[in-house]
Design a protein that fits this description.
The structure is a single chain. A five-stranded antiparallel β-sheet has the order 1-3-4-5-2. It has 136 residues and is an alpha+beta fold. The protein has helices spanning 20-23, 33-48, 116-129, and strands spanning 7-13, 56-67, 76-87, 90-99, 102-115. The longest helix has 16 residues, at 33-48. It has a single domain, classed as Roll (Thiol Ester Dehydrase, Chain A), CATH 3.10.129. It has three helices and five strands, in the order βααββββα.
């Protein structure tokens, strides 16, 4: 049973593979915003997974964040999450991201509880109905 108040924390070292210039989200050699979003999603997902039924998982549906400070390669970042709202399968988290110097981001993240096998089957079925792509 999921109740509000579930907390999560994920920590990682920022590597060159996570930098804006490496992933194509900018030219700076700093922790890229898309990588911060991935850290937020992982933290929230991991925090509630132990409370879900067998075969269930969550998928991200919305991210509303502010990336407020740059983090250089070689510094550790972490995300703290707290489940603030549960409406059936809809989950809303408050998130904060820090590095060793202080806050670097904050916001909210929404996830949805799904049956993993059914969700994957529905996604894979799109391949059967996709229109052929014209490649010039």
């Amino acid at each position: 049973m999921l109740d509000k108040g579930i907390k999560g924390r994920t920590e990682q070292l920022v590597t060159a593979d996570m930098s804006a210039d490496r992933i194509g989200s900018g030219l700076a050699k700093v922790f890229a915003t898309p990588m911060m979003v991935a850290l937020i999603e992982r933290t929230c997902s991991d925090s509630v997974q132990p409370f879900l039924a067998d075969g269930e998982s969550t998928v991200g549906t919305h991210v509303d964040i502010k990336h407020t400070a740059a983090t250089p390669i070689g510094m550790t970042v972490w995300c703290n999450s707290e489940l603030e709202f549960v409406d059936g399968p809809r989950l809303t988290f408050r998130v904060e991201v820090f590095d060793e110097s202080g806050p670097v981001g904050y916001g909210t993240h929404k996830r949805y509880i799904v049956n993993g096998a059914k969700f994957q089957a529905k996604a894979d079925a799109k391949l059967l109905h996709a229109a052929p792509q014209n490649i010039a």
